[in-house]
Write a structure and sequence with these properties.
The chain is about 70% helix and about 5% strand. The chain has about 375 residues and is mostly helical. A four-stranded mixed β-sheet has the order 2-1-3-4, covered by helices on one side. Helix 3 links the parallel strand 1 and strand 2. Helix 2 packs parallel to helix 10 and helix 8 packs antiparallel against helix 14. The longest helix is centred in the middle third of the chain and has 33 residues. About 30% of the residues are buried.
């Protein structure tokens, strides 16, 4: 109890720092909710296509052009090479189709005439290419099984007019979960920075020469001393975790009562234990209070940038993600990304989440063991 009472007295002097990191979390969380797109509707877009037809007015060619026109925006520009190249360069056109002379005739004769294309290479150009490829494949299928050109065109149009009905079965609130994922990803920075800063300041206060000597000559061994300090710091970390969770209920609302919300909370709790062990280890290594700010920047900011707390992991280079594997924050963020897409609770679905949590707990055990070894060596006065 002596250690705990002393701990609470020192903690009071650090309350401003805790509030600061909490405010940062609230500001970024609120900002994200204001800027996030809450729309989940799909809006189809048509590619901008330029058709240069060198064939005569044949039925197959005209039908191909009609199909492209119905499924894209046909661009009409001057058919000079300079104008065409400029339109492609400035993205006024996504896809250019060159239909060669005698295309219909050679197609019906089975010569497989080649249609030249130019493309911007973006997703709209890919959509235009899929349309063209689909038409040609369907036409090739029916070419040898019909007798007349009219029958061929009818078969092609009948097949291409069929559409697949898509039913959205997912019940996930993607907009709400995206906000929750961002909040809990950023919470890793606030939690780690808050734990490292506060715990390092508190432990440095316990390292004053008078307190250190009294501890050494007392009947309390280093294991009990470390245990009392660790439990005191655990209480602070858990209270901070609970506060961040309550804050998420206020900012995010009903989404936190869902399965995904519960998994976010559990994941943060496991990470809190790991952050506590990291802070406790650093606190036993560092004696200079002036160095704590720099350590917070290196540990909390560094791991947040490397592991995807600020920038989504899918946008980070593979090299950065490989380095991030040595940090516990990576597994916490990876869990949040999995939880974002979690629809049902099953062994298969939660297996990667459990594995990541176990890895974070393994980090915790390693950090605690290293802390005890360091503390034992430092308990001896030279």
């Amino acid at each position: 109890m002596t250690v705990f009472r002393t701990y609470l007295k020192v903690l009071k002097s650090c309350i401003v720092t805790v509030i600061m990191y909490t405010i940062i979390l609230m500001v970024f969380g609120a900002f994200n909710m204001q800027t996030s797109d809450t729309s989940t509707n799909f809006v189809s877009s048509k590619p901008d296509v330029l058709i240069i037809n060198s064939d005569d007015n044949n039925k197959i060619t005209n039908n191909l052009i009609s199909y492209i026109e119905n499924n894209s925006n046909i661009i009409d520009i001057e058919k000079t090479q300079e104008k065409i190249d400029d339109a492609l360069f400035y993205r006024d056109v996504n896809y250019i189709i060159y239909i060669p002379k005698n295309y219909s005739k050679h197609f019906l004769e089975g010569k497989n005439p080649k249609i030249e294309i130019k493309s911007t290479g973006d997703y709209q150009a890919s959509l235009a290419e899929m349309m063209l490829t689909r038409y040609i494949k369907v036409a090739n299928v029916y070419k040898d099984v019909v007798d007349t050109e009219e029958d061929l065109i009818n078969k092609i149009n009948d097949t291409l007019s069929k559409e697949t009905e898509v039913e959205v079965t997912s019940k996930l609130d993607t907009a709400g979960l995206s906000k929750a994922s961002f909040y809990y990803n950023f919470a890793s920075y606030s939690m780690l920075a808050g734990c490292v800063y506060v715990i390092c300041l508190i432990l440095s206060s316990f390292k004053s020469e008078k307190i250190k000597k009294r501890t050494v000559i007392s009947s309390m061994n280093y294991r009990k001393y470390n245990r009392d300090l660790f439990l005191s710091n655990s209480l602070f970390a858990i209270v901070l975790c609970v506060f961040y969770v309550l804050l998420s209920f206020i900012l995010l609302g009903d989404i936190m009562f869902s399965l995904n919300g519960i998994m976010y909370i559990l994941n943060l709790f496991i990470f809190t234990i790991c952050a506590l062990s990291i802070a406790f280890l650093i606190g036993n290594l560092v004696n200079n209070k002036n160095a704590i700010n720099g350590i917070v920047n290196v540990i909390a900011l560094g791991s947040s940038f490397l592991c995807g707390a600020f920038v989504p992991a899918q946008f980070l280079p593979d090299t950065v993600l490989k380095i991030a594997h040595i940090l516990p924050t990576y597994y916490y963020i990876n869990n949040n990304d999995i939880i974002l897409k979690l629809e049902t609770l099953s062994i298969e679905n939660i297996k990667p989440i459990v594995i990541n949590m176990l890895i974070m707990l393994m980090f915790t055990i390693v950090f605690v063991v290293i802390t005890n070894i360091i503390s034992k060596k430092k308990s001896k006065i030279g």
